[in-house]
Amino acid sequence: MRMLRIMRTRFAPSPTGVLHVGGVRTALYAYLLAKQTKGQFLLRIEDTDQARSVPGTVENIINTLSWCGLTIDEGVTLRDGSITEIGKLGPYTQSKRLDLYKKNADQLVASGHAYPCFCTPERLDEMRKIQQAAKQAPMYDRQCLKLSKEDVAQKIAAGEKHVLRLKMPHEEKITFTDEIRGSLEFMGHLIDDQVLMKSDGFPTYHLAHVVDDHFMEIDMVIRGEEWLSSLPKHLVLFRALGWKAPRYAHLPLLLNLDRTKLSKRQGDVAADEYRQKGYLPEAMINFLALLGWNPGTEQEIFSCNELIEAFSLDRVQKAGAVFDLQKLDWLQGQWIRKLSLSEFAEKIQPFVMEKFPAALNDADFERKALLIQERMILLPEAAEMLSFFYAFTPPTADVLLNAKQGVTKDNVNMLKEVLVSSLSSLDAKKWNQESVEKVLMDALEKNDLKKGQLLWTLRALLTGKAFSPGAFEVATALGREETLKRLIS
Ligand code: GLU
After folding, report:
1. Cβ atoms of residues 444 and 451 within 8 Å
2. 398 alpha carbon to ligand 1 midpoint, in Å?
3. At 463, which CATH number?
4. Atom 2 in ligand 1: residue holding the nearest Cα
5. What are phi and psi of 41, to 5 degrees?
6. How far is the centre of ligand 1, averaged over its atoms, from the C-alpha of 108 (Å)?
7. At residue 263, does pLDDT exceed 90?
8. Same domain, 135 and 71
9. From start to end of 311-380, where are the E strands?
């Protein structure tokens, strides 16, 4: 492993809804960098927009990260189902840190880097309309910056509602290097005087995350590219507070297949939906890691440990990454095949049991599971794929008769008889795939039949279905008695 400086990273979602797949990718990249450098991965909850906070979403965020195997070293976590916090630099929930934000905001005002603004929403609306009509970018016109000290003191004493705004240095060019985008340059006068403290006493994201990333000793901020345009404000804030800014990496957008921004309209964006659908966390992590990052080699299958080893920000692309579910399914297939038979059986058993309680005490469950491990994608599909073992319905004529395979209503009874007489000649003790195959092949030759004729008939009669694992495998797994019973019924 490369020797890298220890890095503390954080994932800082707002609990405004269930965790999206894009959020999991951000968390994953932050986790990989922390683990790669033997550093810490933090979870901070950014709940300063109280009106938009949705109950239950913190639990959803933590459970989803934990399902993905992204263990939190510090910050908000769950203990016995209740939200709790671990770590020395907390609290890690922004609504519990209001005093700290206020203290730093006051300091910014005292040092002349921030100022109170008493403009009403109506005035601001009016101002924006005028700017838009004049084809100017909407920006606060600094009316309140012109207020005298006395006016400000008087208004505050009178309890007038106000916010605090950052005073952007207009004369300055702000330069910075983003880990993914390279060098960037921002002109101070083009950047709005951001609201830092709202009139309800809550900070905005801009102030809160700067304060938190400083006090939580974050080395690298990994976040979505929607924050890139706010970066100059954040850099100015760090400097104004006398702190060293962390490094920043802004991740590319996730896109639908048609290259529009990933949206619910075109598929599931809630990460938990993928767990519910039966995707494996290994497949999900592997898939998300490759959304925007490439290893620079042909390797496509990565375990979490392999990702920790291989991941680097310099191989993250700037362009949006297409969320291609076919790729996810392919990776899922690969991860399903990598499971040992017992792991696989254990994972599918709950889904099968849900429909067929008999699967619970089925001593032969693994043998049945083996029949589908090579073919299935999503775990819940196992119930349908193995259903014929637990609830048998003989095939309809539509399924049984198959002209292409040479099974017709004129020869089907003869085929059935050939199957019964050849298989019943086989002793129960000798009932294994090899011997089943051998007696059937002999019967085929003796009766001058085509392979498809006999095998289709056998498979259809044993499973009742047009699609299932192969005839020999099914007959072997069912055993002699059940096989003959189904053939005769
Ligand atoms: N709370 C912000 C969000 O959910 C976090 C951005 C960041 O990671 O700094 O978008």
Report:
1. yes
2. 57
3. 1.10.10.350
4. 13
5. -115, 120
6. 22
7. no
8. no
9. 321-322
Report helix, strand or coil for 244.
Answer: coil
| 209 CB near ligand 1 (under 6 Å) | yes
Q: 144 and 219 share a domain?
A: yes
Are 202 and 154 in the same domain? yes
In tens, the pLDDT along 278-300 reads 999 999 999 999 999 999 999 99
Per-residue pLDDT of 63-119, as tens digits, reads 999 999 999 999 999 999 999 999 999 999 999 999 999 999 999 999 999 999 999
Residue in this structure with the two tokens 């899922």, named with its chain if needed: 332
The residue to which tokens 């080395």 are assigned: 219
Is residue 223 lining ligand 1, measured as CB closer than 6 Å?
yes
| 392-401, Cβ contacts within 8 angstroms, sequence gap of 24 or more | 392/464, 392/486, 393/464, 394/461, 394/464, 394/486, 394/489, 395/460, 395/461, 395/463, 395/464, 395/465, 399/460, 399/464, 399/465, 399/466, 400/457, 400/460, 400/461
Residue 19 is given by DSSP the state: P
**Ligand 1 proximity of 20 Cβ (cutoff 6 Å):** no
Distance between Cα 223 and ligand 1 center (Å)? 6
Q: Which of 346, 371, 347, 381 is nearest to 474 (CA)?
A: 371
Pocket test for ligand 1, best of 9, 223, 226 (most atoms within 8 A of CB): 223
Asked, for residue 3, whether it belongs to a domain, the answer is no
If asked whether residues 101 and 90 sit together in one domain, one would say no
Q: Evaluate whether residue 309 is within a structural domain.
A: yes
Q: In testing the pocket of ligand 1, which one of 14, 19, 219, 248 has its CB within 8 Å of the most ligand atoms?
A: 14
Residues spanned by the domain of 475: 397-488
Residues 156, 237, single domain; the answer is: yes
pTM of the model: 0.92
Laid out side by side, the sheet with 114-117 consists of 114-117, 163-166, 195-197
Q: Could you give phi then psi for residue 186, rounded to 5 degrees?
A: -125, 140
**Residue 285 domain-assigned?**
yes
| Number of domains present in the structure of the chain | 4
**Which residues are known catalytic residues?**
264
Ligand 1 pocket, residue 272 CB under 6 Å: no
The number of residues in the chain equals: 489
